[in-house]
Design a protein that fits this description.
Number of strands: 24
Low-confidence stretches: none
Shape: elongated
Number of helices: 25
Largest sheet: 8 strands, mixed
Mean pLDDT: 91
Length: about 600
């Protein structure tokens, strides 16, 4: 037993019962620090349901101690159990879980008399919260170390075949960089060395006892707790010569059943990945909402603070369009809006296409604002022929330093990156966010989207970005609505990659909701139906559907001032017809002029 560590105490939920224990110098067979629970310590009588669901090793340890009489009914604390003798546990967390009957991080709950946690006495600040990590081991030079070594021996390892011996825990990144550059100079490229430095620093210095570690093998995600410091093993296989002890949960979780956000993060291909952004999803794996609530109550969590795992489970929803929305948008049938909503929910991306003046942009904005719950979650951009990936997502842009007035190129986020970052913030993930891309077909889409084309189809994956080098995934609560003017470019000319990734909804004067839109607007405004009759007569003379005229041109107050209709027809509509028939020798005024149309109607 070590004298360098004080006696640690664990306060059970009711606040009056306090258990006592000591951290031992002795390590278990797997390298974790042992912990001694002293005799006379109180033990919770019942376990919470989630403890039996997870069944960590401490679950079986507790049951065995009760069966052998090492833990018995207490005379000192009615309704509780008590340790009859000193009990040696494989780790501080095992000790805490045996006493409390629930999953808990022992490195933080065992505290000395002055209130310092056990992890602080090991030289690491408790101000740094416990982190979850992904460490890959299913394919290390062709071997699945997860099944072969990690799970059976209680380890997580990292290959550092050429790294010199004696590298200490807590080494700085600068020191590691110098060692890696020297030791791997002839065997690894510059980028490989840079990534190795990041992986080694995370494994040796950022990872600490009490952190969660995850790995993937055989289509399952396995979760465990780091129970000790790293060791560098020279004599063993160099594929696993950096090691940390881990207490693995006995059962894995099917990968295909994991939350989409967690799958996105797990698709990162680095050997060591910080999973803090999806920690809440990991904490809730395999547990029902009720079990999470009972587990939180067992450790006396502040009831005013939301349980992160439950917050992360908030369902993303798109509200059902209402009759009031249909009336506001002058849509003929609420069911049409509901179908559009369902298409967005299924595909996440949609294009509204049709001739000019059919209200595509207006409808996209109003529908997005309704589904998102307000304009704050809606951003609009307009594509044009010179629009590029650097404008849309991210790229280096000249920026002036406000202090020195010098101009330098800096990495700048575009509208999609900004909206994606907003949508993926904690607390925002159940709120829909919409990007409206006006005139989506006017840009070179393959050039603008780049690797993002892949993410539009595979929302549960991530890709390495061209400029920043970050691993990026489109958040599941980000929806995209594009608008396309078919008179500018036919839908048939859109590349197959885009057609596969977007749902296409037509807005055409020949079909509802556009066909009767002007009549509904005129009726709402109390105006005569004559402009609607004229528009129908005009479109009946246009053979190509993509060049028919939408009602938006005639849904403006200026049209209904004195001579307004004639002025609008002469300056807005007839020029479109002249462009359509350019070089054909058609008398535009005789065929499409107001006088000709009125004569045909009367």
């Amino acid at each position: 037993m070590a004298d360098e560590y004080p006696e640690f105490r664990l306060r059970l939920p009711n606040g009056r019962m306090v258990a006592r224990g000591r951290l031992l110098q002795e390590r278990g067979a797997r390298g974790s620090r042992k912990f001694l629970v002293l005799a006379g310590s109180p033990v919770r009588a019942n376990t919470v349901p989630s403890f039996a669901t997870r069944r960590p090793p401490s679950y079986y340890t507790r049951q065995q101690l009760i069966d052998t009489g090492a833990i018995r009914k207490s005379d000192r604390w009615p309704g509780c159990l008590e340790t009859m003798s000193d009990i040696e546990c494989t780790s501080p967390s095992t000790a805490a879980e045996v006493l409390m009957g629930c999953s808990v991080n022992g490195w933080g709950v065992w505290k000395s008399a002055d209130g310092r946690s056990l992890i602080e006495h090991l030289g690491q600040s408790s101000a740094v919260p416990n982190r979850p990590w992904l460490v890959r081991g299913s394919n290390v030079t062709g071997l699945d170390l997860v099944q072969r070594l990690w799970l059976p021996d209680g380890l997580v390892t990292l290959a550092a075949a050429r790294l010199r011996q004696g590298v200490r825990q807590g080494i700085s990144k600068d020191e590691l960089r110098a060692l890696v550059q020297e030791d791997y100079e002839s065997t690894a490229t510059y980028s490989q060395q840079q990534q190795l430095v990041e992986d080694l620093h995370a494994f040796l210095s950022r990872m600490k006892p009490g952190d969660t570690v995850c790995t993937i093998s055989g289509g399952h995600l396995y979760v465990g707790e780091v129970t000790g410091e790293p060791e560098q093993n020279q004599s063993e296989d160099r594929r696993s010569n950096l090691r940390r002890p881990v207490e693995w949960q006995p059962a894995g979780h099917p990968y295909d059943e994991l939350p989409e956000e967690l799958q996105q993060k797990l698709s990162n291909q680095h050997d060591v990945v910080d999973l803090t952004s999806v920690q809440a999803h990991i904490e809730g794996l395999g547990l029902t909402d009720q079990e999470l609530v009972e587990e939180a109550e067992a450790i006396e969590r502040d009831p005013s603070v939301e349980i992160p795992a439950l917050t992360a489970r908030r369902e993303l929803e798109l509200p059902e369009p209402t009759d009031e929305l249909a009336a506001e948008l002058l849509v003929h049938d609420t069911e049409w809006l509901r179908e559009v909503r369902d298409l967005l929910w299924d595909e996440r991306q949609m294009v509204l296409y049709g001739p000019p003046g059919t209200g595509k942009t207006y409808l996209a904005l109003k529908l997005a604002e309704f589904l998102a719950g307000g304009p704050e979650q809606v951003k609009l951009v307009q594509f044009h022929p010179s629009y590029a990936y650097e404008d849309f997502f991210e790229g280096f842009r000249p920026q002036e330093d406000p202090q020195t007035r010098e101009v330098a190129f800096r990495l700048t986020a575009g509208p999609l990156r900004e909206l994606a970052d907003l949508a993926s913030r904690e607390g925002n993930r159940h709120i829909p966010h919409f990007l409206i891309i006006d005139e989506i077909n006017r840009a070179n889409l393959a050039k603008v989207f780049g690797e993002l084309y892949f993410l539009l189809e595979y929302r549960n994956k991530s890709v390495r970005l061209t400029y920043s080098g970050d691993d990026f995934a489109l958040p599941p609560n980000l929806f995209v609505i594009g608008t396309m003017n078919t008179a500018d470019r036919s839908i048939a000319l859109v590349d197959a990659a885009m057609r596969r990734r977007f749902a296409f909804v037509e807005l055409s004067p020949r079909t509802e909701p556009t066909r009767g839109l002007l009549r509904r607007w005129l009726a709402k405004e109390g105006k005569d139906e004559a402009p609607a009759d004229l528009l129908d007569a005009l479109n009946s003379r246009i053979d190509e559907p993509d060049f028919r005229i939408g009602p938006s041109y005639l849904m403006k107050k200026s049209v209904y001032r004195e001579a307004g209709l004639e002025r609008t027809w002469r300056t807005k509509i007839l020029p479109l017809m002249e462009e359509h028939h350019y070089g054909e020798g058609v008398d535009i005024d005789k065929r499409y002029g107001l006088a000709a149309l009125r004569e045909s109607l009367g």
